[in-house]
Amino acid sequence: MLNYKAYCLDLDGTVYRGKTPIKEAVDFVHYLQSNGIEPFFVTNNSSMTQKQLQEKIAKMDIHVEVDHIISSSIAAANYIEEHFPKKSVFMIGEIGLQDALAAKQVVRTEAIADVVVMGIDRAINYEKLSTACLSIRAGAAFISTNSDHAFPDERGLVPGNGAFTKLVEYSTGVEPIYMGKPEAFMLEFIQEKYGYKKEEMIMIGDNYSTDILTGIHMGIHTAHVNSGVNRTEEVQMKLSQPTYCLESLHDWIK
């Protein structure tokens, strides 16, 4: 299947599960690269830098340029640079978001700020949440990297960034602007930077509510793979259908 120029793949549940690569996805990436196509990787993970994500998938025998890895942190930093240049920013987050903001020379503060941006922060505390709420009540723009309410670790499902974002939203009464899937900001960034037409792009993933819907919102083709969050039979019951439903990405290696 070589009908597209920009293959945009989700990571967790599509390319790997935790630290374990999904062989069919690795083989598909190699297939694309052997045909001169360099895929993109689109993830809601805001905690890791592009370099860290690049190193993680390199250990799985996937070798790509760092610019082909787009995270919700990158989308947030781009959005702040475009819409709030020179404004002070209060950040809740980890190294992935910190690195993305620094790359755009965003001015950060620990005091009341013009912009609040939230990513997953496993050292979150009452003081950070208070500063975020006070800033937003004073008129700060409210941005969140993603709306994921939970994510898996070795213990099971633990609170995601969306859960903490909802706490701040509930306290302030202000809805955030979400950067991650199912919003289309990351796909729009790829399209604008590389000049693709929508018909040249496809979003591939295992999660209907994030991966497939972000492609639908973008107006591009989508492919659901039966390797993670949603099974094919669940997806086939949805009102808006993906363009393709695949058992695995081996289905597209001819």
Automatic annotation (TrEMBL):
The organism encoding this protein is: Psychrobacillus lasiicapitis
Q: Which cofactor does it need?
A: Mg(2+)
Instruction: Name the chain's protein.
Output: TIGR01457 family HAD-type hydrolase
Cellular component terms, GO, for this chain's entry?
A: cytoplasm
Identify the InterPro entries for this entry. HAD-like_sf, HAD-SF_hydro_IIA, HAD-SF_hydro_IIA_hyp1, HAD_sf
Pfam families registered for this protein in UniProt: Hydrolase_6, Hydrolase_like
Alphabetized NCBIfam families for the sequence: HAD-SF-IIA, HAD-SF-IIA-hyp2
| Positions contributing to substrate binding | 181
Could you list this entry's UniProt keywords, alphabetically sorted. Hydrolase, Magnesium, Metal-binding
* Catalytic-site annotation from UniProt: 10, 12
